[in-house]
Amino acid sequence: MKNIRILHLFPKLLSLYGEYGNVVILKKALSDAGYSIDMTEYENEFPETFSEFDFIYVGSGTEDNIIEANRRIFSYGDLIRRSIEEGKYWLATGNSMALFGKVIKRRDEESASSGIFDYTTELFDDKRFSGDVLTSCDNDISSQLVGYVNTSSLYTGVKNPFCEFLLNSSLGNDKKSAFDGIRYMNFYGTQMIGPVLVKNPFFLNKLCKNITDSEEDFTLSSYQYLAYETTLSELKKRLV
pTM of the full predicted structure? Predict the structure, then answer.
């Protein structure tokens, strides 16, 4: 079977909320299906190209660490853009979305970010936006997603959101509308933490199928589906 190459960016610097679990469960799902996995981690130095990887993941971190991660990766914007345009799969969760916009604002200061997408991030030191979230089915996963948002980040100018929150709709990108994240080609960005792939088996299955170019469903734990259905049921009750 195909060898899958996974890159985890900033596994130490951006490691809040157990986000490493997104990589762990993706790797397990692919391995259980018979795929061999090459796992690479980059913290300070980066490859000459991101195009050699099938899937790249980056998780959330403190506000200070997001600024530091942005400093480290800023000059690699062209390489990141090239891999996205080539159809490589990316997942950015929590406030790591800030790394892919055009500018980050904090404490009356502005820092240019990679400029992959044309949105602005504002980081607050004295505000937090948090709560459980439940999305509509109007996304390319064709499933309602469950998760949690806990952020000090506000995003304005996102043109292609990933999903729409039904529960706690004021937690969207700009904290005014319900639209969350960004979706462009095979790049997924979402504020949801949890980790989102652990909480959402349909999302995990979709990624596995896309990364491997397979039509077969991946065999995931029945307990994961049970946990998802239980969470989904409880969150739906709060919509009434």
Answer: 0.96
